[in-house]
Amino acid sequence: MHYKAIWISDVHLGTSGCQANYLLDFLKHNEADKFYLVGDIIDGWRLKKSFYWPQSHNDVVQKLLRKARKGTEVIYVPGNHDESARQFFGLSFGDVKVVEEVIHTTANGKRLWVTHGDQFDGVMQYAKWLAYVGDTLYSFILHVNRYFNMLRVKMGLQYWSLSQYLKHQVKNAVSYIADFEHIMAREARLRGCDGVVCGHIHKAEIREIDGLLYCNDGDWVESLTALVETQTGELKIIHWTQIKGEPIVTSAADLEPAIQSLIEEATL
């Protein structure tokens, strides 16, 4: 499928929770005039603790660079987990532009502010230590979710996110998400835009908030989603919870670092 624009975020390459095989399959079957990487593409936080980089993660990077070389305009907006890339605002690497934020104009004339969103997260701004603690617990749940879904695939079932299920059962988490969404819509209005596209909270959504369009492209560790714009300007959330091409077999060599990482997390 060829779209006018595609947005993805929160891929978290460098973690065992990253669903790189699903993302590779999505990239194989979908093209766009513009491709936005809306933060947390590489997880620098986790890589500082332990190095985990299977071939599939390298393949994702190479696939994105190949798209840029072949004429797709690839724009990278770093997030909090890949915040080290923020020192390169205004530069390009392998035809990939690194920017702080950007305005995208849809085919039907809507101006959308594109940003990761962590700058407007109170926890990230005023209690970053708490974000690090939460990240460790979250990573452990993703480890469990990874092996749980391996069993589901063997049983012929679709991908299902344990972490998303738990998140939506907790009232405080639901309240936090709602507050974040309203803050992002307000900030888009202050910038004179018709809406916002962001990531950060791992919850794909398209809805109107106080007359503004709020779009979140989701993630590739829980929901396996991307935001797309059709050639006529329609915005859609794409759920890629099944491999569409040839089945991808995870090798024992790929699993070994993930198992070791799971043991380390459990002993913290």
Automatic annotation (TrEMBL):
Molecular function via GO: metal ion binding; UDP-2,3-diacylglucosamine hydrolase activity
Pfam families with a match to the protein in the record: Metallophos
Record GO cellular component, one term: membrane
Domain Calcineurin-like phosphoesterase: start-end pairs: 6-203
GO biological process, one term: lipid A biosynthetic process
Keywords of the record: Cell inner membrane, Cell membrane, Hydrolase, Manganese, Membrane, Metal-binding
Keyword Transcription regulation attached: no
Coiled coil: none
InterPro entries the UniProt entry points to: Calcineurin-like_PHP (IPR004843), LpxH-like (IPR043461), Metallo-depent_PP-like (IPR029052)
This protein's record includes keyword Metal-binding: yes
Name this polypeptide is given: UDP-2,3-diacylglucosamine hydrolase
Organism: Polynucleobacter tropicus
Lineage: Bacteria, Pseudomonadati, Pseudomonadota, Betaproteobacteria, Burkholderiales
